């Protein structure tokens, strides 16, 4: 039976270490998971690589919101892709759609070229992955073929549904269409409870989760009534990866038998 990959999405070094303790195979590193994740700093990439030694794929997403970017954002993304690889990222996870909902091949190629050039300069390979922009594209079948054409290693997807369990029928079709050319990474709402049935029904060989739990702030003095961000967001509560949740997911994934 092939080893199934457990990827954990983290936005801090503390979460990265918790993911490693739980048995993660690799990390997707981002900033701001509370808003769906944005690009992490080069300093965070370097620190997480040094502290964990795990394969790290850095998210390349300049802002929250949709995946249709203007020319200034695209220029930043190409530069950031190179910088993240230079900082030690083993992969880049990104996605750009055109206004019609198709994968923007020109923009993606420009980003991929920048990342690959930086990897060559560093003397090591780089994996390129398509994130959940795939889940809001117009045609999943065509988008998968475009990702293969670009030479991408992975598509992170919920099967174009709110969560991977709801999208399991499309995940199964994508896994069949991929035919070993590209990894289908099932993500969104994935946990130890649903991994066994999800893997059996879709035949995916890789699962993605964050396994977060609430952690109280270390602040003792807390001034109330001065919000710093999203309405209703508790600034004295952190979300961090729970090693127990990752350990349970690892056991569930390893326990699936064909």
Major sheet, described briefly? 8 strands, parallel, barrel
Q: Report the order of strands and helices.
A: EHEHEHEHEHEHEHEEEH
Oligomeric form: single chain
Strand content: 15-25%
Q: Going across the major beta sheet, what is the strand order?
A: 1-2-3-4-5-6-7-8
Distance between the termini: 8 Å
What is the helix content? 25-40%
The class by helix and strand makeup works out as alpha/beta
Count of runs of 4 or more consecutive helical residues:
8
Q: How many β strands by DSSP? A: 10
Gross morphology? globular
Low-confidence stretches: none
The average pLDDT score comes to 95
Radius of gyration: 18 Å
What does this 3D model show about the protein?
The chain is 37% helix and 17% strand. Strand 6, helix 6 and strand 7 form a beta-alpha-beta unit. Helix 1 packs parallel to helix 2 and helix 3 packs parallel to helix 4. With 258 residues, it is an alpha/beta fold. The strands form 2 sheets. Strands 1-2-3-4-5-6-7-8 form an 8-stranded parallel beta barrel, surrounded by 6 helices. Strands 9-10 form a two-stranded antiparallel sheet. Belongs to the CutC family. This is PF03932 family protein CutC. Its main location: cytoplasm. Keywords: Cytoplasm. Pfam families: CutC (PF03932).
